Every structure is written in C-alpha cells, then in structure tokens.
Amino acid sequence: VKRAGEFARGLGNRVSEQSKKMILEEWDGTQIKLEADPGLRQQMRSVIQDKVSRAVAERQSARKLASELGNATKDWARDWGRIARTEIQAAYNEGVIIESIDIFGDDARVARVPDSGACADCIRLLLDDENKPIIFQVADLLSRGTNVGKKRVSWQPTMYPIHPNCKCDIQIVPPGLKFGDDGLLVPED
Length: 189
Known about the structure:
It contains five helices and nine strands, in the order ββββαααβαβαβββ. It has helices spanning 38-57, 62-73, 80-104, 120-126, 138-143; strands at 14-15, 22-23, 26-28, 31-34, 109-113, 135-137, 169-172, 177-179, 185-187.
C-alpha cells in the first residue's frame, strides 16, 4: 500500500485554465524537481494506493484495476493498463520477498525469472551466461531500490518490476539449491 503509485509519473500534471497549456512535473532521475500540482499528485497517489491494495487483496486482474483507476480518477488520457500491470507485479514481488524473509531470514535468496516474452534488458539482467536465472540475496535486491527515473543503461535487477509492464517473475530459492540445466531447482554440488 505504501509503495503503490511509486512507479507512476506525471500524476500532478494539469492543464492551466489561463494559458491552456500543460503544466508538467519535472524529474531528475528518481527525484521530483518540480511538482506541477502537489495536491493533485497526492490525491492521485492516494487513489492508486487504495485501488491497488484492494485489487491485490481481492486478486483482481490488471484489466479490472485499470478500469477502476480510470473510473476513480476520471483521467482517461493516462495508460492505466500499464500502471495496473506494473503495480500488481510490484505487489506480488514484494509479497514473495516478505515470504522469503519470513522463512529464511537474513539469508533469503530469490531469482527473478524472465517472462516468456521478456525484453532483452530483463534477459541481460536476470539470466547468467548459461541462460539460468541468477540467484540474488534479497538484501542486495532491496538495496537497489527501483529503476524508476533511471536510464535504461543504468537499470539493475531489483525486487520491483525492471520497467513498466515488466511481468518477470520472482521465485524463492532455498539454501543449498541452484538452477539445473532444465530450469528446475536442484541441490548445489
């Protein structure tokens, strides 16, 4: 709930009635430099947080969440489908991370498993030289934050979606296991 809406940019954009021009947020990487309308941004973020938390709790589809976000905000120019898919994936990933820490504590490990239609960036970041998922210490993924606002060449593996619309999975990897040639977990040598 706290992180929902973190991936959405331009939530405070508005049209100036006097000049009939767009007043846009300005960002410097991951930091907002100029908020066009801080109140609108907070209102939109609150709507996203509420709708995403309900969608996750009720196991709604991204399509249903996108519709609810559009209806709640009356902002039909925004790509709510992309936001919904990214937010649901982020919530799922965070849930797996929490579960891994609950089970294995500070030694928790996970793999980010590329989706069947994964982009070249996700493949580059999530697979090793043998095309097996890379196993990460949870603490390492958490320390990287998100890729929001970063240039593509600076993207890193994180617990959150690598980019908007990213559907790459996350899987707990118990101690003593690794990925075999068939992509299944096997005992380490």
